[in-house]
């Protein structure tokens, strides 16, 4: 059982800080011992039971009372904050998988091209790789059922191929020009998922690490990436948390601790009950306590991402670059119900070291859901001057810089959204899966030539030709996207960059993709120029 007591050094809860994320702890059903509150609760429970019984016995039509109870629970939780919600027993496993660091299945990355499931790659160490399933294999049957040309969706594929470790699934595969199908019987196993998407050296000094979420293995992945970069001579680091929706609080705390000295405060929580009050202080010698550090955030950076960002900003440890973060300062705990379902309710608010709550208002749930669109319409994505902060929510960092609570974390250096590097035609090619299909086929057809390159050679010398762009347009036309050669010509360099990055992903995975793709990352490109500012920030504490 997880502990809720205050602790000097560490919050001992695997707390959830983002929508749709999971832990696995039990809180108990009653939050107060007050006789009056208990009597009121018993009265309300009795009233609900009476109504449900009346409907079951007297309502004119047949009614599924279980469905009514599920709807009632969902509606009840919707009256609370936007992040308290209910997960049915049927949906619980899938909801929990994303943060557990692995799922159970056959171990392939797949895509659906023209109504056919295609293996993009067998995952390293998984059962499909062990059996010899190859990139480009087309899955025609699953458990003797035809799945090609029948409108299978991604969700359908996951439903049929994922399953508990040790269970068996049969697949029939078409490979190349072979006329007969190849039958495989695959024993499902645990398949690791990774949350550190990329780590590489931008130049001789600057390292880059991108974290997509804070899952069960994130801290270990992060430390491994950090050690790798430090071993290659890294003295400056860019930590990319853009679009990171959060996850486990303890992993956010551990990562922040790698950058902070001594007993620096990282985060603290306050709830209705004192057992939900706790604080986390730095407790170990961090791997990167002295090097210059920049953290990238945007409107998609939420919860656990904001804990890391807030801790580093309030302690004047890192320069924060990008756009205002999402603004989620509520802590959820998952509670198992007796039928295997789960409720996730907010038990506390968290505060950055300066005392900020960065939770944005949620009195109006519809406004809360439209907040990012409202920011866009208001011009916030393009101008920092459009953002107005409440002076009553003003706080100070350790060196006396002004920061604000009440709605996300404002970066130290604002980078507007770049809409110039955008192509409606390119977006359609991605949406219709044409880009993915084209680069997959190109990489397969030219695999021998591509693998002659070292990655550095590919990065420096590979050029996308006009013929390649035209072939992409042909694939798009086949997938229902009308060619727009004017757009393609106008945005030629953007098309070239995306094609090159996607081909690199086929050969060198994310480590090949991100160094090329990140040329379109305007926040990162600005951050690379700001290490003098990060150095000044560090000196401000002296």
| Average pLDDT metric | 89
Radius of gyration from CA coordinates: 26 Å
> Main sheet, how many strands, which sense, barrel?
6 strands, antiparallel
- Residue stretches low in confidence (pLDDT < 50, at least 5 long) are 1-14, 16-32
Beta fraction: 15-25%
Instruction: Work out the helix count.
Output: 19
Helix/strand-derived category reads alpha+beta
Specify the helix fraction band: 25-40%
What is the terminal-to-terminal distance? 43 Å
Q: What is the number of strand segments?
A: 21
Question: What overall geometry do the principal axes of the alpha carbons give?
Answer: globular
Task: Describe, in plain words, how this protein is organized in 3D.
It contains 19 helices and 21 strands. It is 37% helix and 20% strand. The chain starts with 34 loop residues before the first helix and ends with a helix. Helix 6 runs parallel beside helix 7. Strands 3, 4, 5, 6, 7 and 8 form a 6-stranded antiparallel β-sheet that branches. Strands 10-11-12-15-16-21 form a 6-stranded mixed β-sheet. Strands 1, 13, 14, 17 and 18 form a 5-stranded antiparallel β-sheet that branches. The chain is of the alpha+beta class. The N terminus is likely disordered. The radius of gyration is 26 Å and the shape is globular.
